[in-house]
Structures are given as C-alpha cells and as structure tokens.
Design goal:
about 425 residues, alpha+beta, Phosphatase 2c, domain 1, seven-stranded antiparallel beta sheet, six-stranded antiparallel beta sheet, 20 strands
Length: about 425
C-alpha cells in the first residue's frame, strides 16, 4: 500500500519530514525507487543477496538488477579440502568483467588446479611453499588461456584472410570459447587457510581481503591482506611505467592504456598480446567486445610493447595464533562492497585500509546478529530503510544495472 509524505508539527513549531513505506522517490542520479519498511525490506534484501551459512562461514552474492544480460559476473567458492589428513579451507572471489566467459572458466579450473598443486606439494618430501604454489598456479591458468587461442594460428597470420580467421574463431564451439576467454577478464582473490590457522591470500585486481583480530587489550585490529591493483595505486603505476619506459600513455587517467582500471587480471589479452591479435582475431569475433569498436581503436594505438596487464599475483601470509587474538574473522569482498562502503560511509573508495577498518568495526559490534555477510552488506547500503531502499529498489527504464556486483565471504577464525 502506498502512503503520502506526512508533515508532523511539534510543539516547538519544528517540522519533521517522515518518509513512509511504499513512497516513490528519486535518488541523486534521477532514478526512481520505492521505500520499503520492515519486514519487507529485509525479505527483499535477502531475496537478492542469497545469504548462505555453512559452518563458520557466511556469504552473500548480490546484483539487484533482474535483467538477464546484467546478471552478476561475480563468482565465489567456499570449500574444505582434506589433504594428507589435514583440513585446508579454500575461499575465493572472482569478479568477472566484459562478459562471463573468463570468470566461468576460472572458477571451473583454478580451484581444481590449486587443489592438485597443494596435494602434490604436501605429498612430497620438499618444504611447502604455499605462496609459490598460488603464484605459479594462477599464472599458469592465465597463460593457458592465451596459449589455447595462439594455438589456433600456429603460423601466425601470413597468407590468411579475415574470412579464414572468422571461419576458425566463430565455430560456436571450442574455438569460439578459447577466443572469448581471452577477450573477457576476471580478477582473482584466493585464500588458503591451513590447519594451524596460517592464512595465505593471493590477489589479482581490486577485490579485498581483511583480517579482523581482537587484541588482548580488547581493541580490534585491522589487517588488509590483499593488494589493490589499479591505475590509481602508486606502486602499480611505478611498476607499469618502469616496464614501459618512454610510453607516457601506458597509463592515462588512472587506466591502463587509458582503457581499463585494473592493472592485473586473468584474461584481457587485448592488453597482453601484440595489437595484431586484436585487429585480426578479437575484432573479428562474434560476439566481440562488449564496448564499442571506437574504444578499442582508441587504446589500440598505445599498445606498443605488451603485456601491459599482469597475471602475477601478490601473496601475503599471516599466522593468526601469533597475533594472540581472542577473536578473529576474515572478510573477502568484491569491489562492489568497496563502492557501497565509499558511498555509505563517506570515505575514499580507493583506500583499502579505510574500508577494511570500517568493515571490522561493523562486524565486531556486540549487538550484531544473523548472517554476518548480510549484516555487513545492509550496513554498507546505509542500514536505514530509506537508504537501503534507495540502493535496492531502483527502477531503470533501460534495464541497466545501477550498482556493481557485490560478493562477501565472512569466516570466523577464532
């Protein structure tokens, strides 16, 4: 049932505006949304966020836009691996972009490859180097994606016409899949939690992993265990410019070649291979890129000494018992949560430490109840009914999504 806005007159002549459930409003972007009240609001949020709880782990996975073509490109995996009589917890968030092809491939092959590599290492007599296992396995998955496409043209493009290229790559089968996996991309955030609460975190891109630990003094400490691989990160800017000396436009407006914000990912081979593969293969693919040919041509002329995007992940390790914490939990999140947090909490979207500290503060509240990932998501959306409704209940004429895909994994460690 809809209600009109009510004006309530108080004895001191002050007027307070109350927004009633069912009212239609417009947000700052001009989109109309419907204000929901409880319990409808929580029910609608849960319907979109798909909260799940398994043991000590809570998850949410949300994209409120219901247009099929705009379905979430996030993927996540939570699994317990029993290897050599030890239990290893594997958790991962993959944030796809440009399409679903690469992220679907990564989520299907990377966990299996890591499991095999870890099992082989644990069964050998050599010392265990989990960091190297993560680095090598992730890089190998990316390299194989590129090699599968390169193998379609073992002799390069000599004496091969565009029609021949199209016939090879647009078979609606294995060849098409190999090409599309190169053209799309995915970030990677992988966590391995060992049997003695050693944690290794591997990251490519801009998803975030945060450890919250309650110290002996009773205060909560925040540790960011992921890297922030984007064109606004000073370390990444320095790395890319050092790899491409004299190329002023290898980074332009905080984007690689002026086009893509992240600086490390699986896939995205238009930024890793010579430009001839874009002009001869990717632009002849059907379907092609999900952005215009003009945008491709804009960055293509800057592609002088590839690769510009890296698939070498950063790995951080921490031994939780050494912290002496009485409580500890881990948060993995796609960058959709970072965007929501920036808007709701009024902070710099690009500062992982600020966002991580806020998430730990929210999840360490004594009155927190229910699914922790859902609790954090709702708080980051503004917590109050009108604020959450303004994010969740948007109506768009063209059916386009209005917020980024958002995934959260919360795990209680102690």
């Amino acid at each position: 049932m809809g209600f009109d806005r009510l004006q309530i007159n108080h004895s001191h002549s002050e007027q307070i505006t109350i927004i009633m459930a069912g009212e239609k409003k417009q947000n700052v972007f001009g989109f109309t949304y419907t204000v929901l009240d409880e319990p409808e609001l929580s029910a609608e949020l849960a319907r979109h966020a798909q909260p799940q709880s398994t043991g000590a782990t809570d998850t949410v996975y949300m994209q409120p836009c219901l247009t099929p073509s705009e379905r979430s490109q996030d993927r996540f995996v939570v699994a317990d691996w029993v290897i050599a009589d030890q239990t290893w917890r594997f958790q991962a968030v993959f944030d796809g972009h440009g399409g679903h092809d690469t992220v679907d491939h990564v989520v299907s092959v990377l966990p299996i490859a890591l499991h095999h590599a870890l099992a082989d290492a644990l069964s050998s007599a050599e010392s265990l180097d989990v960091s190297e296992i993560l680095r090598k396995t992730i890089a190998d998955v990316d390299a194989q994606i590129g090699q599968d496409m390169l193998d379609l043209f073992p002799n390069g493009f000599d004496d091969i016409s565009d029609d021949d290229v199209k016939a090879i790559i647009n078979d609606n089968g294995h060849n098409s899949a190999k090409v599309l996996r190169c053209m799309r991309g995915s970030t990677v955030l992988v966590t391995l939690i060992g049997p003695d609460l050693d944690i290794w975190v591997a990251s490519l891109g801009d998803c975030q992993c945060v450890l919250g630990a309650k110290t002996v003094s009773g205060e909560w400490q925040t540790t960011v265990l992921s890297s922030n691989h984007n064109g606004a990160d000073a370390a990444e800017v320095a790395r890319i410019r050092s790899e491409h000396p004299g190329e002023d436009e290898c980074l332009l407006k905080d984007r690689v070649l002026g086009s893509i914000a992240i600086t490390r990912a699986i896939g995205d081979f238009e930024f890793k291979l010579p430009q001839i593969y874009t002009t001869r293969v990717f632009l002849n693919s059907n379907p092609s890129f999900q952005f215009s040919v003009a945008k491709v041509e804009d960055f293509l002329g800057r592609n002088l000494t590839p690769p510009y995007l890296s698939a070498q992940c950063d790995v951080q390790h921490i031994h939780v018992p050494s912290l002496g914490a009485s409580e500890a939990f881990l948060i993995l999140a796609s960058d959709g949560l970072i965007d929501l947090s920036g808007d709701a909490y009024g902070m710099d979207h690009r500062d992982p430490q600020l966002a991580g500290k806020k998430w730990v503060e929210v999840l360490s509240r004594e009155d927190r109840t229910g699914n922790a990932a859902l609790y954090l998501l709702k708080d980051a959306m503004g917590s109050e009914a009108e604020a959450v409704s303004s994010v969740l209940m948007v109506e768009t004429e063209n059916g386009k999504k209005w917020i980024d895909d958002t995934t959260i994994i919360f795990t209680k460690l102690i």
